[in-house]
Amino acid sequence: MDDEQERLLPIANVGRIMKQILPPTAKISKEAKQTLQECSTEFISFVTAEASDKCHKENRKTVNGDDICWALSTLGFDNYAEAIVRYLYKYREAERLRAYQNKGNSTQEENHEDDENRRGQHGKQTDELPIPLEFRVMEKGDNSHQARSS
């Protein structure tokens, strides 16, 4: 496989996604799959590069979901950014719930340690969930850390 093929999304995955939206009897040409494969790969690279530049300017090495939302909005893809913000919120809530439920499956000793770690300043038990939920929707072109409510 040459370098060009290695950087592209797997064509089988692209075809599978395309089939999901089409009627069951519809056919998709190889050329259509290849065209969408190239376009979707380029789109992902474009958005990721913008998010990566933001992280580089902020001296961070990890691109996260918030950075992708910011990049989509900055690049004029506000509808996509809004949809991904909603997805991220639901995903993080599900992860939070899953982590909280998994705590119930821990051993007594682990539960005791977790209880100790979750105690507030005055030894009171806090009801905070183990994974903090944090995301920001940035204004287009805004590089500050000020959040706006969505």
From TrEMBL:
SUPFAM superfamilies: Histone-fold. Keywords: Transcription, Transcription regulation. Residues 8-72 form the Transcription factor CBF/NF-Y/archaeal histone domain. It comes from the Eukaryota. GO terms for molecular function: DNA-binding transcription activator activity, RNA polymerase II-specific; protein heterodimerization activity; RNA polymerase II cis-regulatory region sequence-specific DNA binding. InterPro entries: CBFA_NFYB_domain (IPR003958), Histone-fold (IPR009072), Transc_fact_NFYB/HAP3 (IPR027113). Belongs to the NFYB/HAP3 subunit family. This is Transcription factor CBF/NF-Y/archaeal histone domain-containing protein.
